[in-house]
Amino acid sequence: MMELISAERRELAGVLEGLSAEQWRSPSLCAGWTTAHVVAHLTMPFRITEEEFGRGMAEAHGQFTEFSDAVAARDSELPQAELAGVLRDNIDNPWGPPGGGQPGALGRHWICHPDGTVTTMGGCDSVTVEPGDVFVIQTPGGGGYGPP
Fold first, then answer.
1. How far is it, in rounded angstroms, from Cα 46 to Cα 140?
2. Which position has the higher pLDDT, 126 or 83?
3. Is residue 142 part of a domain?
4. DSSP string, 87-148
5. How many domains does the chain have?
6. Per-residue model confidence as pLDDT tens digits over 32-86
7. Contact, 101 vs 65, CB < 8 A?
8. Among 5, 28, 82, 110, which residue's Cβ finds the most Cβ atoms within 10 Å?
9. pTM, 2 dp
């Protein structure tokens, strides 16, 4: 499967690198988003750290769509070559959604507070959460069966 994903990323990176400035800024099929917004969204997993993800989700009160829309709006202003380059640099990256991981990996959990601070937690910790806090759980496995 990873070979197919890599081939698609390679082809997409080539197409993106060949777009004119007008095509890069043209509307996409996603309402309110240009091509640049879509590419900023597609490359988010390769550019956003777990900490930035947690802080952003806390600021968005746990609403992923609000967070990802804000990141796409902000990062659509990055240079076209930079965003296309991020995709090209990660052609073979076996990234998975947050919470996934390698077999035998340890889970983690933390709280992101509205002020941007993060409270890391141990396995049996107990804390009081306040309005606006986001509790993040990173599970040790991806949930699938067998090799990817």
1. 20
2. 83
3. no
4. HHHTTT-----TT---TTPPPEEEEE-TTS-EEEE-TT------TT-EEEEE-SS-S-SS--
5. 1
6. 999 999 999 989 988 988 888 888 988 888 888 899 999 999 999 999 999 999 9
7. no
8. 110
9. 0.65
